[in-house]
Specification:
The structure is a single chain. This protein is of the alpha/beta class. The chain folds into two domains: 2-99 and 204-230, Periplasmic binding protein-like II (D-Maltodextrin-Binding Protein, domain 2), CATH 3.40.190; 100-202 and 247-257, D-Maltodextrin-Binding Protein, domain 2 (3-Layer(aba) Sandwich), CATH 3.40.190. 38% of the residues lie in helices and 20% in strands. The chain has helices at 2-16, 34-46, 62-70, 83-88, 122-128, 139-146, 161-164, 181-187, 217-230, 232-248; strands at residues 21-24, 51-54, 76-80, 90-92, 103-109, 132-135, 151-154, 173-177, 191-193, 197-200, 205-209, 254-257. Strands 5, 6, 7, 8, 9, 10 and 12 form a seven-stranded mixed sheet that branches. Strands 3-11-4 form a three-stranded antiparallel sheet. Strands 1-2 form a two-stranded parallel sheet. Strand 6, helix 6 and strand 7 form a beta-alpha-beta unit. Helix 1 (2-16) packs across helix 9, helix 2 (34-46) packs across helix 9 (217-230) and helix 2 (34-46) packs antiparallel against helix 10 (232-248). This is Solute-binding protein family 3/N-terminal domain-containing protein.
């Protein structure tokens, strides 16, 4: 299989030049899919590959998107890389967010904005004994386990976590990527972005292809590598997220590096 993929990668410019590709992709009602869709179109188009994106669903929760990928109903999906997903799907081996998805910031109830102001390290954070909330099968669950931090898992639609946050009990915070949290807070103004802490671990989003579309791995990977080299990916990251990064004051936060399992 590896030899076949290598040969296909070597010849993919000739195989795909002028031949259109149709990809069936999920979307989200909050627009969080838009960067990934545009990155695919722009990277492939820059290499002369005509691509059409089909989005049959206006909103697909992550857990359902994984099931649709398993059943080959959608062509690919973007997720944090994990060994389990690498076994289950065909990975396009190019990070998609320059690691910003693994720079985690807390979304908290408004009353808790200054609750973490005195935290200087992981031990301080443990002593506060607050409880995080995650969606089912998130890689964050493994990270929080490895770092001995308490959490609760929300099965089904993870966006229900927004309404579950409380300063007194249950779920106290929701960990989000630096590229996600600003727009999400704007949609939920009863919550605030915790202003002091930045948690980091070593992972990034990658595209995972369904079995039916595994043959596209070489051409998509080649296009994304060139998008990194040409600055196209950086351009799109700036387009969608740089303003948010500046408002989050990433360089002024206390950085807590978490163990990556």
């Amino acid at each position: 299989m590896k030899v076949w993929l290598l040969l296909l990668w070597l010849f993919c410019p000739f195989l795909y030049a002028g031949e259109p590709i149709e990809l069936i992709l999920p979307a989200s009602k909050d627009g969080s899919h838009e960067y990934y869709h545009e990155l695919l179109i722009s990277a492939l188009s820059a290499q002369g590959v005509e691509v059409t994106l089909v989005t049959p669903y206006s909103h697909v929760p992550q857990k359902r998107a994984v099931r649709l990928l398993e059943s080959q109903t959608i062509s690919l999906f973007w997720m944090l890389e994990t060994p389990k997903r690498n076994r289950q799907f065909t990975k396009v081996n190019v990070g998609l967010t320059n690691g910003f998805i693994s720079k985690r910031i807390l979304l908290v109830p408004r009353d808790d904005k200054e609750r973490y102001a005195q935290v200087k390290n992981l031990d301080d954070f443990r002593r506060i004994n607050t409880i995080g909330g995650f969606g089912a099968d998130w890689f964050d669950i493994e990270v929080w386990q490895a770092n001995k931090l308490p959490y609760i898992v929300r099965d089904g639609e993870w966006r229900a976590l927004y309404s579950m946050l409380s300063s007194k009990g249950g779920v106290n915070y929701f960990s989000r990527g630096a590229n996600e949290i600003w727009s999400e807070q704007k949609q939920h103004p009863y919550l605030v972005i915790e202003p002091h802490l930045l948690f980091t671990y070593k992972r990034d989003f990658v595209f995972y292809l369904s079995k039916q579309n595994a043959y596209l791995q070489p051409v998509i990977e080649s296009a994304l590598i060139k998008a990194k080299q040409s600055g196209l990916m950086d351009h799109l990251i700036k387009k969608y997220w740089t303003r948010h990064f500046n408002q989050l004051n990433l360089n002024q936060r206390v950085t807590i590096e978490l163990v990556t399992p």
